[in-house]
Amino acid sequence: MTEIDIEKENAAIAKAYKELLKVSYRTLSTEDKKLIRKAFNVAVEAHSDQRRKSGEAYIFHPIAVAKIVAQEIGLDAISIAAALLHDVVEDNENYTVKDIERLFGPIVAKIVDGLTKISSLKKDMNVSLQAENFRKMLLTLNDDVRVIIIKIADRLHNMQTMDSMRPDKQEKIASETLYIYAPLAHRIGLYNIKTELEDLGLKYTEPEVYNDILFKMKESKEEQDAYIREFNDLLKKSLDKEGLNYIIKGRPKSIFSIKRKMDKQGVSFDEVYDKFAIRIIYKSDRANEKFLAWKIYSIVTDHFRPNPTRLRDWISSPKSTGYEALHITVVGPKSRWVEVQIRSERMNEIAEKGYAAHYKYKNADENDDNLDMWINRLQDALENASTNAVDFVEQFKLNLYSKEIFVFTPKGELKSLPKGASPLDFAFSIHTEVGRKTRGAKVNGKLVPLSHKLNSGDRVEIITSENSKPNPNWLDYATTGRARSKIKSLLKEDTKIIGEEGKEILRRKLKQLKIELNERSVNEMVNFFKLKTSLDLFYRVGTGNIDNAALKDYAASRSNALVSFIKNKISRRQNVAPEEINKDEITHKYDLLVFGKEEEKLDYKFANCCNPIPGDPVFGFVTINDGIKVHKKSCPNALSLQSNYAYRIMQAKWIDSSQREFAAQIRLSGIDNLGLVNEITKVISSNMHVNMKSISFDSDDGIFTGKINVVVRNNTLLKKLIDNLKKINGIDKVTRL
């Protein structure tokens, strides 16, 4: 770089810093500004030799993160300083967490430590560095929620500036974002940031889908603006008559949520009816907020017929994220369903900035703090940090996106639970001991099974017994992270107790067979009974699953070397044969995929979870014991695998899909009429020469649903078949399962 370039860059850095101070949501004192300046100076010095992939000076990144923290989230000076310093310890060997503590105090040091990644772990394919880093970050949540918020801001800026990265790196970071950071932003109430993270995540994980929806949204923008103006004109007179101070604006649905709706409902872009919501934001003091919200609701429903099942009152019972609003769905102009959101300016600010705005409006005598309640609810999951890091993250993530229901205790207290929660979730939300002793439950005075799904407004009573204890079936009934983590740990305790008893029983029984219980004999028995650990062995002896007869079989195989040798031979032959057959099968049938930059042909298997066929975008995942498994990029497990095990992901692509046939299942629905099945089979078998394996149809009061199993050569042929089936008169929907 020339001296002129350096001068220009320094001027740009100084300008970015001044903007940071200007845009802060909070009023910064002189002390605050001193702290931020000091942090800025340390960050500039620490990152002086670093550049980003795009070529710009690295210091622009921490300034941008601090700007998001200050302006869009509205955090305090300590957070802004920590955001400026968030990469200093990780990227510069001259600074340690102790140095940060000495310069800025323990709070900033704690936050920076929580934001510093673990640099290395022992090389073990089973240890996920990403999951360990997630765990480290999440465990600091108890100490300071600002760690998570700054990390979300850091991730947002990384996602906004990812164009110059390699495609595989983009996909890994985008998958992590959709997997953990967007749900976290949602849970903390940062809805604007959550929406941007989701859209950017989709942009890099499924670029074709993203660009297609983006193009269609731009095409329909003019029409949407005209619709919002029409809606506004119809309401304006009535709202003005009441002397309300308000604005009406449209909020387009995010690209990600449109895509999710298309997938969930099996519809096209044009069939998604609520592509935008109308938001009425009104001015009010705290005393009249609720009254004015219902007044506006009354005016809207006077003009437009509401859908009675789609009223959402989050003013009387705010979400646990602090979100407050009235949502109604009405039949708007041109007979279109449209969602109307009614919020005060305060509610709107909380919806956009989350808890920072919540603190701004909070009265001194208000003790209720939803953020603290949420952190307390997660306490148990966070304390259970001894579990495998991937399980820990999955468990934590479990309820981040869940919708809420509100149920009552027998005393009339209101409890918030995720949608789909069972009486067991309710029991463990009250207290671990109540959950542990659960024997049954009454909902609205009637006995219900523990698998019963609770609904908003239910009154729930838990029946307990000192003799009750969890059983493995409970894991099928519980949905919350707290309940599941407690049930797992209680089951483990139970297993250990039975295992200890089983060990002593085994020692006595082996003594009668003249065998000593030692490491060698335990390993032999674990192999003989095809178990994984010694605890599995002791537990099965304790429960009686491994009885005297089984132990005698083990003793006989041990004492008779010849029998043992023959058995091993047979077992080896049995184990090897399928592998050999598989290998031949692989060579013959699965040579259409190539892996990595070198485009190597490797042995692999298809993952059962998503059943890919040629033409589907796919990737390879290196398993511990089962070789390479091939998944579709849209597989339900793809985000989790990309996020936790990116180092095991292999790029994969199809090189020729003309020589092999693949099975696929198609679901159809529509209006039943005479000769419809004949027409469908004609399209499949005669016109397209596709082999149909099986077909089943059900008809109910003139509406039919059907499933067809076909064999196709590639994805293009399958898409063509689906398009042709859609053209048949009477067919409403055709989707691939």
UniProtKB/TrEMBL annotation:
Residues 403-464 form the TGS domain. CDD domains: HDc, NT_Rel-Spo_like, TGS_RSH. PROSITE patterns: TGS (PS51880). It comes from the Bacteria. Pfam families: ACT_4, HD_4, RelA_AH_RIS, RelA_SpoT, TGS. Signal peptide: none annotated. Belongs to the relA/spoT family. In eubacteria ppGpp (guanosine 3'-diphosphate 5'-diphosphate) is a mediator of the stringent response that coordinates a variety of cellular activities in response to changes in nutritional abundance. This is RelA/SpoT family protein. It comes from Mesoflavibacter profundi.
